[in-house]
């Protein structure tokens, strides 16, 4: 006689798998962050060759280890906005992407993660896109 799982068991297994793959809702306990900050929405993507030329040049400098044109390049990005996946302090580094015509650092940045992740923002951390390399 074949072993047949009940529909309830299948639903529970599917729900558990979904929770494990997406993270449990209501997280953030003991982190000092709200649950919204610990569970960022899915980020859009951008291919490297679709980035502005200045961003591609900044990526080249990152790959080469510098030198960087701005003193703050390579400094810790704190992810205070909670837009990127939550990681320990020091996990993310930020780099300036020059903006033609700007007198200061402007709003564009590349943020890298310790495990090789690359993110691009052109609106000073309001939104991020995952860079597909």
Structural notes for this entry:
With 133 residues, the chain is an alpha+beta fold. The protein has a domain at 45-131: Microbial ribonucleases (Nuclear Transport Factor 2, Chain: A, Roll), CATH 3.10.450.30. It has helices at 7-22, 35-38, 53-64; strands spanning 44-47, 75-77, 92-96, 109-113, 118-121, 129-132. Strands 1-6-5-4-3-2 form a six-stranded mixed sheet, with helices on one face. A hairpin with a 4-residue loop joins β4 (109-113) and β5 (118-121). Mean pLDDT is 80; it is low at 8-39.
Task: Supply database-style keywords.
Nuclear Transport Factor 2, Chain: A; 24% helix; alpha+beta; 133 residues; 19% strand; 6-stranded mixed beta sheet
Supply the helix-strand structural class: alpha+beta
Give me the CATH architecture of the domain at 45-131, please. Roll
What is the H/E string?
HHEHEEEEE
> Class of the domain at 45-131 in CATH?
Alpha Beta
User: Residue share in helices?
Assistant: 10-25%
Secondary structure topology:
Layout: H1 7-22, H2 35-38, E1 44-47, H3 53-64, E2 75-77, E3 92-96, E4 109-113, E5 118-121, E6 129-132
Parallel strand pairs: 1-6
Antiparallel strand pairs: 2-3, 3-4, 4-5, 5-6
């Amino acid at each position: 006689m074949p072993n047949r799982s009940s529909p309830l068991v299948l639903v529970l297994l599917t729900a558990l798998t979904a929770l494990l793959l997406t993270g449990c809702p209501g997280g953030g306990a003991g982190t000092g962050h709200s649950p919204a900050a610990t569970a960022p929405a899915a980020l859009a993507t951008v291919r490297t060759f679709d980035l502005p030329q200045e961003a591609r040049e900044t990526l080249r400098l990152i790959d080469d280890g510098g030198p960087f044109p701005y003193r703050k390049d390579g400094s810790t990005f704190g992810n205070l906005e909670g837009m990127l996946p939550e990681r320990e302090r020091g996990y993310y580094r930020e780099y300036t992407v020059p903006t033609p015509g700007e007198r200061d650092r402007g709003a564009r940045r590349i943020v890298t993660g310790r495990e090789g992740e690359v993110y691009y923002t052109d609106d000073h951390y309001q939104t991020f896109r995952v860079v597909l390399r």
